[in-house]
Amino acid sequence: MTPLTIALYNGKGGCGKTTLAWNVAMGLARREPTLLVDADPQGSLGDWVNWADSEGHFAIAFNDWAAFCEGPPEDHRYRVYDCPPRLGEEEIQAILGQADVVLLPVLPSPLDLWASRRSAELLQDLRARRPGLRAFFVLNQVEAHSALSRASQSAIAAMGLPVLSVRIARRAVYRSAALEGLSVYHMGKRATAAMDEIERLIEEILK
Ligand SMILES: Nc1ncnc2c1ncn2[C@@H]1O[C@H](COP(=O)(O)OP(=O)(O)OP(=O)(O)O)[C@@H](O)[C@H]1O
Ligand SMILES: [Mg+2]
Q: How many Å apart are CA 10 and CA 16, to the nearest integer?
């Protein structure tokens, strides 16, 4: 069976691509074999992934660009691609061309949203050519109980991509898990809320 491929993409840096790729991959790996693809030449996922392997989880890294272009192994149910912020046109097409679902993490401020405009446009173009492609904004680092400002809502509406209904909150546990080389699935009770929202995100994209 061809794997379901989910890419975390945004040309803007620091919006949560790696954090979400890692945690979503670990959540998917609890369901079925999952390949976590580090499409970042700097390879920041490397250390985490070695830990995951030593613990017997399924997520693994794959950051050999030439091999990637030939096609990653197919013996996984899910693939998650963590894209670096700056990619050449050819690299973008190679990565997103393989994706079934693209998640574009954004911080919920008008400035951050507008900074993601080029990436949203690129996804609109891709969708025009490949109507089967599903692409969504994911609001990340949302302050608890805060409503989305009107300016943010209109920025989102102007960019024409749907938004996942789950919102990922700003939580210290995402940072501490990353520092320890762990996912929110391995942080015990203090990560229950984070784990729940990652699970809801996964359920939403598997729908
Ligand atoms: N929901 C969250 N709550 C708290 N901290 C977060 C959250 N999401 C991301 N962070 C933190 O924000 C910083 C940037 O996140 P991350 O590295 O995942 O972004 P990125 O989009 O992969 O960045 P780059 O574009 O540089 O690859 C990291 O320090 C990460 O731990
Ligand atoms: Mg990253």
A: 9
Q: Which two tokens stand for residue 166?
A: 């789950």
How far apart CA 42 and CA 74 sit, in angstroms, is 24
The DSSP letter of residue 181 is: T
What's the CA-to-centroid distance between 169 and ligand 1, angstroms? 12
d(CA 176, CA 181): 9
Q: Which residues neighbour 90 within 8 Å (Cβ) at sequence distance 6 or greater?
A: none
* Pairing of β 134-139 and β 4-8: unpaired
CA of 38 to the centre of ligand 2 (A): 9
Report if pTM > 0.90.
yes
Give the model confidence (pLDDT) of 6-28 as tens digits: 999 999 999 999 999 999 998 99
Residue extents of the structural domains in the chain = 4-206
Q: Which atom of ligand 1 is nearest to the CA of 172?
A: 4
Tell me the pLDDT tens digit for each residue of 104-144. 999 999 999 999 999 999 999 999 999 999 999 999 999 97
Atom 14, ligand 1: which residue's CA is nearest?
Answer: 14
The CATH-assigned architecture of domain 4-206 is 3-Layer(aba) Sandwich (3.40)
